């Protein structure tokens, strides 16, 4: 294969990545966008076999094919069988693996070049190792938090800020050591310190900020891939990595705004993190609970109903049942909409993906800025498995983990119905005062079972 043909095919693969991002901008074209992106990645991988190593035969073909086969064997079943509730964990793991792989490739290429490595290549290698290792170890901690294998609350330890700052200084100093003198030992020390910094960087992050961290680490991985493309002199990696890094950075900014955080506070929150005041314990005050029949009656005589989905909807796998309920209400002449908070769930767009799986019409999904002014004219709000995104503490309780986060103003509606398993607080670990308001009715139980009973009761009316 000639160099010109290689570059031309690589350009086509890059265009596929751009079209994939464009397709992902809308649920209607997201599936097509994913397929186009997969096609581009396949083409980018295949052409390496025909041009890598200067057009000569590719070295270690057996090992490369074995690695690809292993990735297919692990990746395909994981992606197909993963439950929707575990999708954020899978995203975090895949993202971390990408950053770690880019760092390893840069290290191998650096060792291969040895004394022939130019200063720009060494600088790009150091950048790739630092950001890739931070992305890898930080993503692992994010996975552990999402999987609840460790506490979801901020992990604060004595002299934490000072230790994090010293670790960062060590990362930068060891990076400068590599650039100035070279050598394997300084590079390995740089990688180890970067792994440690990634852990320390994410530990102080509480559950409410996890979606932002996922997006941020995704941007880190993209930048790592772009830098590794420079080290390998591969334009396609530079293009792909830059696209991921840029889109991830934009998404991080949007997520930070949705959480009421500054981007600076998100990036450097580890240095200013304070211990959370959340107790994670349910209040002993009485609440008003109801039955499925009570909820059905409220819904049946409503003119406008807004459904607010949350992580509990994904846990119960109740998206199809909530779609059936919405269709039944619409058939009775009730206006139905879904109030979507940007950080509902545990990753960006979690609820959009979940409801798209149930073929909920995209037009019924209304973003927070558009739905909030309509709550005073809403008769009933049905909150299914959400807590933090409707919690008034975000406006009334300074110092709590979600203070300052824009919320869905469901308290302004005529009636609020919460579908909950128990009185346990949400992911941020704080109590929701709205649960104790006279206008609020709680329907306890598994969301799917509860919704099924409500649907049956509605049909009987």
From TrEMBL:
Family membership: Belongs to the PNT beta subunit family.
InterPro entries: DHS-like_NAD/FAD-binding_dom, NADH_DH_b, PNTB-like
Keywords: Cell inner membrane, Cell membrane, Membrane, NAD, NADP, Translocase, Transmembrane, Transmembrane helix
Reaction catalyzed: NAD(+) + NADPH + H(+)(in) = NADH + NADP(+) + H(+)(out)
One Gene Ontology term, aspect cellular component: plasma membrane
Protein role: The transhydrogenation between NADH and NADP is coupled to respiration and ATP hydrolysis and functions as a proton pump across the membrane.
Transmembrane intervals: 6-23, 35-52, 58-78, 90-111, 123-144, 156-179, 236-256
GO molecular-function term, one example from the UniProt record: proton-translocating NAD(P)+ transhydrogenase activity
Membrane topology: Multi-pass membrane protein
EC numbers on record: 7.1.1.1
Principal subcellular localization: membrane
The name this protein goes by in its record: NAD(P) transhydrogenase subunit beta
PANTHER family: NAD(P) TRANSHYDROGENASE SUBUNIT BETA (PTHR44758)
Enzyme superclass (EC): translocase
């Amino acid at each position: 294969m000639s160099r010109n043909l290689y570059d031309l095919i690589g350009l086509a693969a890059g265009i596929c990545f751009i079209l994939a991002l464009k397709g992902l901008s809308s649920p209607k074209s997201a599936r097509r966008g994913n397929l186009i992106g997969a096609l581009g990645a396949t083409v980018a991988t295949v052409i390496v076999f025909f041009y890598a190593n200067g057009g000569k035969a590719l070295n270690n073909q057996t090992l490369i094919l074995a690695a690809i086969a292993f990735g297919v064997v692990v990746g395909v079943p994981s992606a197909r069988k993963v439950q929707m509730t575990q999708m954020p964990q899978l995203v975090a793991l895949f993202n971390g693996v990408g950053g770690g792989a880019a760092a390893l490739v840069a290290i191998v290429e650096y060792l291969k070049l040895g004394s022939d490595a130019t200063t720009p290549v060494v600088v790009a290698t150091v950048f790739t190792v630092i950001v890739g290792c931070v992305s890898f170890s930080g993503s692992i901690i994010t996975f552990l938090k999402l999987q609840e294998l460790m506490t979801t609350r901020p992990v604060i330890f004595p002299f934490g800020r000072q230790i994090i700052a010293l670790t960062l200084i060590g990362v930068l100093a060891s990076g400068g050591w590599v650039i100035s003198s070279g050598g394997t030992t300084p590079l390995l020390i740089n990688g180890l310190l970067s792994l440690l910094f990634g852990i320390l960087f994410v530990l102080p992050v509480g559950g409410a900020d996890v979606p932002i961290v996922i997006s941020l680490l995704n941007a880190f991985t993209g930048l790592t891939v772009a830098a590794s493309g420079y080290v390998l002199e591969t334009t396609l990696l530079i293009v792909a990595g830059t696209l991921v890094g840029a889109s991830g950075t934009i998404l991080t900014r949007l997520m930070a705004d949705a959480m009421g955080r500054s981007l600076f506070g998100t990036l450097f929150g580890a240095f200013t993190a304070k211990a959370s005041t959340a107790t994670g314990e349910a209040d002993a005050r009485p609440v008003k609970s109801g039955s499925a029949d009570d909820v059905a009656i409220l819904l049946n005589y409503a003119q406008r109903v807004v459904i607010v989905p949350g992580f509990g909807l994904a846990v119960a796998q109740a998206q199809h049942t909530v779609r059936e309920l919405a269709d039944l209400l619409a058939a009775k002449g009730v206006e139905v909409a879904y109030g979507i908070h940007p950080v509902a769930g545990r990753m960006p767009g979690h609820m959009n993906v979940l409801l798209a799986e149930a073929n909920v019409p995209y037009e019924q999904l209304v973003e927070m800025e558009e739905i909030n002014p309509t709550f005073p004219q809403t008769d009933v709000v049905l909150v299914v498995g959400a807590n933090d995104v409707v919690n008034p503490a975000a406006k009334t309780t300074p110092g709590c983990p979600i203070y300052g986060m824009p919320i869905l103003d469901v308290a302004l509606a005529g009636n609020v119905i919460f579908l909950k398993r128990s009185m346990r607080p949400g992911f941020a670990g704080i109590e929701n005062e709205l649960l104790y308001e006279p206008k609020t009715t709680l329907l306890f139980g598994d969301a799917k079972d509860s919704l099924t009973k409500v649907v049956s009761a509605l049909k009987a009316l």
